[in-house]
Amino acid sequence: MMRRKNNGKVGAGSTSSNSEVESRKEYLVEDMNIVKEMERSGEEVVGDRAESSNMDVSVDAIVGSEKTSADYYFDSYSHFGIHEEMLKDTVRTKTYQNVIYQNKFLFKDKIVLDVGAGTGILSLFCAHVGAKHVYAVECSQMADVAKEIVEANGYSNVITVLKGKMEDLVLPVTHVDILISEWMGYFLLFENMLDTVLYARDKWLVDGGIILPDKASLYLTAIEDAEYKDDKIEFWNDVYGFDMRCIKKQSMMEPLVDTVDQNQIVTNCQLLKTMDISKMSSGETSFTSPFKLIATRNDYVHALVAYFDVSFTKCHKLMGFSTGPRSKATHWKQTVLYLDDVLTISEGEAIIGSLSVEPNKTNPRDVDIVLNYSFHGERCQISKTQYYKMR
User: Fold this and answer.
1) How many whole angstroms separate alpha carbon 208 and alpha carbon 165?
2) Quick one: 178 exposed, middle or buried, by C-beta within 10 A (0-12, 13-18, 19+)?
3) pLDDT higher for 34 or 174?
4) Residue 161 has pLDDT above 50, yes or no
5) Is the pTM of this model over 0.85?
6) Which of 342, 324, 387, 335 is nearest to 360 (CA)?
7) Which residues does the annotated region (Disordered) include (predicted)?
8) What pLDDT sits at residue 192?
């Protein structure tokens, strides 16, 4: 099976010409128009502009301002490529649009806080269905473009774009009725934006207010992946006749964000953790969950795979989406944790263990993962602990 890794974020590249910058700006405006057309046509948009060599043009190049933060996290969201990818993720964007458009009664005459607004697409959806006012908070330079987008669409009197960290801002109101955010990262928790959402909830959301989405669940399964593991991991054993296994050890510790073919799945899928965003504390982003993966066929296991679902339970009917390998692909893809050893497994045999997750102590936006597992099958027995770092 051939797969290509794409981590979604685009680093700063070489200086682009004015024509290139204007071209990328036009692309972004076109993408916003594409999303607006979704409601009328219901068509799913798949484009290839993300492959453009101009993908690394940043907002700084357009707004003419210098970066005020060295933090890569916010810098990465100043580039159009990641916003283009998210807007064209129709599973993501269309779900949010449906949640808002099909539940207008929730938003009518309500004050809304959009945390991590990006281009402002969710704020525009909310304003479109009659929100009294929307406060769109965005820390990156994209906030300047979001203001322009809001003005271009005639919502300047309804949407206020606030540039800065959520934790540092003071809203011009005492509370909001609805908090909406697309906070999920790879492996659900990568980038740790959830802590910011929880801060905003506790600081600004009125008692009994609505948070969207309000539920998120993390799952685990096991896959056969011999070809890809050999290409990406075992490659380091012999590189043009030289031993580079020291790199292999490091590469094993880096989870792979990629799309997994559902035919690779060889066990059941195990629920690891469900988070109630309306009630949970920030400390609950660190957890240890047990699992038991039972083989559904005779095969080999090369890796465990994590994915997540999110739900909007306050709607008139349950709505949400999954990032699992049996669902339509999203820009989150799945997170692959390769095992040091290959497990030879037979139908009915079980891999038993636990997965521990916590923010990295040095950089809380990174995620540290500890996998403990044991397998005692007819043809293979092993007990092991492996460490992974998402960064």
Assistant:
1) 25
2) buried
3) 174
4) yes
5) no
6) 387
7) 1-25
8) 87
**For the chain, domain boundaries:** 18-182, 216-390
Q: Is 303 exposed, middle or buried (0-12, 13-18, 19+ CB in 10 A)?
A: buried
- Candidates 353, 356, 349, 338; CA nearest to 376 is 349
Per-residue confidence at 78, pLDDT binned at 50, 70, 90? low
d(CA 284, CA 24): 40
Element (H, E) at 357: strand 350-359
Lowest mean pLDDT among 25-34, 37-46, 353-362: 37-46
Name, in order, each residue with C-beta under 8 angstroms of 149's C-beta and a sequence gap of 6 or more.
29, 32, 119, 120, 124
- The correct answer on CATH 3.40.50.150 for the domain covering 18-182 is yes
pLDDT per residue over 109-136, tens digit each? 999 999 999 999 999 999 999 999 999 9
What is the DSSP track for 186-255?
TTBTTT-THHHHHHHHHHHEEEEEEEES-EEEEEEEEE--HHHHHHHTGGGG-BTTB--HHHHHHHHTS-
What's the burial of 189, exposed, middle or buried (CB within 10 Å: 0-12/13-18/19+)? buried
Contact 199, 193 (CB under 8 A): no
- Tokens in use for 373? 């597992």
Are the CB atoms for 100 and 126 separated by under 8 Å?
yes
Inter-residue contact 81 to 50 (CB < 8 Å): yes
In this structure, CATH architecture of domain 216-390: Distorted Sandwich (2.70)
- H-helix or E-strand containing 367? strand 367-376
Q: Which of 293, 267, 281 is nearest to 371 (CA)?
A: 293
